[in-house]
Design brief:
heterodimer; A: Folate-binding fold; 4-stranded antiparallel sheet; 6 strands; 38% strand; B: 8-stranded mixed sheet; globular
């Protein structure tokens, strides 16, 4: 349980948000040319980092906008929040 | 040779104030080399070592545990055992485990307190009714005992459930697996540890794995808190930390690690003599032999290794419990905790070889690994010893995420993941 500083609404409880998993997974540009292994990488394989991780969140019970956060998964401490399309600040 | 536990050994040791019990397992220092190293000293890892030694005659085995044995998810789950899964592959896997549970205390000479008190799964809407009836039929075709109960039969089997049609999610029916039940989770780890140790397995606690050494596509050994240990085969049974170990070997797994919570109440006299699970409202409850209500909550939806979950998850579960069991409205909760579960996209486990020779993974059990402990150990031992899966775990290979042949138990498992 922690607070998330939504870049559009300000600080709210985590329960207002939906976690969207690992950030910066690039959608394949040529889906028809992907091998089965590449599809598996894109769809299923995850870093699942123990430590500082970049992830997507949606303020589902607020502005419903997507954004990214940098969070330490060992203690749930949020290091930074940044908007979609921006480079990670850390 | 270990002394056999019996009523006579209990009496004999009572006469000496229980001060002369033999140690259940040794506390060895690691050797330079092992035939097989198991990473993770939980129930699944210890069972794997036990069956490797017992059925495959491999005796030079080490189990490396970063904390103490059974201190992870083995000691954190709600101890429910059942095999009423929908798909054939899952039914085969979990019922294999259930059959071993039925004779486990005798086999290990260790009382795992396996109690076949039945597990009931409730339906709260018409889709639940259809799903549970389908699952009952599928179970019976696979030789698994299952019956569908209507609302009156649910009430008769567990009288404290509120079956009023006026509650928000009324009980429309349910399934019952009578062979299902609970066991004492710590005893499972201790029993397997004692059995494995007797056959020469080195159980090395406080020995965290720091790295996996590869030579090309073959494993050479592990770097640990107690130095480098050479081996040709590594079985990883690290639950929520599977991705961390995979990363050491340069692999990625289709897993996300999330906190799963459970809680127990203050102890009370016997009030519920079965296990009741409810998928739709996410509430499940049983009563331990100490008298505590054992309640399982859900997972958080974000990745975390913090071993603590969010308060709103517990609140949601308790809301559902109170509506289904108004009699518990003044119960006080005693303890609450979290464990880190590794969840696969299809909510089924991975018991598999990998692209690295000599590296095997047993992971992805998500929220329901405890029930499979004996079967998981048996099949993983077979996979490691023969470098080939057993027919019961062939479907649970890592390659299914490439081939697309998933074992989708998301909706079919009794509780949502």
């Amino acid at each position: 349980m922690f607070l998330i500083n939504c870049p559009f609404c300000g600080e709210r409880e985590q329960s207002e948000f939906k976690a969207g998993g690992e950030a910066h997974i690039v959608r394949p540009k040529q889906p028809t040319e992907l091998s089965d292994d590449e599809w598996a990488e894109y769809l299923f394989m995850r870093k699942n980092i123990k430590g500082v991780q970049l992830e997507r969140w949606n303020h589902i019970h607020g502005c419903r906008k997507w954004f990214n956060i940098v969070r330490d998964t060992t203690n749930d401490e949020i290091k930074a929040v940044y908007k979609m399309g921006e480079k990670p600040p850390i | 040779m270990k002394n056999k536990y019996s009523i006579f050994s209990l009496i004999k040791n009572a006469l000496s104030n229980h001060e002369n019990w033999q140690r259940a397992w040794r506390d060895p220092q690691p050797k330079k080399e092992y035939d097989v190293i198991i990473i993770g000293g939980g129930g699944h890892g210890l069972a794997t070592a036990y069956y490797l030694a017992k059925k495959h005659s491999i005796k030079n085995i080490a189990v490396l545990e970063k904390g103490w044995i059974g201190g992870g998810n083995t000691g954190r789950n709600t101890t429910i055992i059942r095999s009423n899964y929908l798909w054939d592959a899952s039914a085969g896997l979990y019922d294999h485990a259930l059959k071993i549970w039925e004779g486990l205390s005798q086999e290990l000479n260790y009382n795992v307190m396996f109690s076949q008190r039945g597990v009931m799964n409730l339906a709260h809407n018409l889709q639940d009714v259809r799903d549970l009836k389908r699952r009952t039929h599928a179970n019976r075709l696979n030789g698994i005992d299952a019956v569908y109960l209507n609302t009156e039969e649910v009430k008769k089997f567990c009288p404290i459930i509120n079956t009023s049609p006026d509650i928000r999610y009324p009980v429309l029916g349910g399934t019952l697996q009578k062979r299902a039940g609970t066991a004492r989770h710590d005893a499972v780890a201790w029993g397997y540890a004692r059995g494995a140790d007797e056959m020469g397995v080195d159980i090395i606690q406080n020995c965290e794995v720091k790295g996996i050494k590869r030579n090309g596509d073959t494993v050479e050994g592990v770097d640990t808190a107690k130095g480098f240990i050479k081996t040709k085969k590594i079985g990883v049974v690290a639950a929520g930390h599977s991705s961390v170990i995979a990363n050491m070997a340069g692999l990625r797994l289709p897993l996300e690690s999330k906190p799963l919570q459970a809680l127990v109440s203050e102890p009370v006299k016997p009030i519920i003599d079965t296990v009741v699970m409810s998928n739709a409202v996410h509430a499940y409850v049983s009563q331990s032999d100490k008298g505590e209500l054992v309640i399982g909550a859900g997972t958080d939806d974000y990745i975390s290794y913090s071993q603590k979950g969010s308060h709103d998850i517990v609140e949601g579960t308790l809301n559902a419990i109170l509506e289904l069991y108004p009699i518990f409205s003044r119960m006080r909760m005693l303890r609450q905790w979290g464990g880190i579960v590794d969840i696969c996209p299809d909510a089924s486990p991975i018991i598999s070889k990998t692209s690295v020779k000599g590296l095997y993974f047993n992971c992805g059990w998500g929220t329901g690994g405890f029930k499979a402990t004996p079967g998981s150990g048996d099949l993983f031992a077979h996979t490691i010893a023969n470098d080939e899966p057993h027919k019961l775990n062939a479907a649970f290979n890592l390659n299914r995420f490439v081939s697309g042949d998933l074992v989708d138990e998301h909706g079919a498992a009794a509780v949502a993941h």
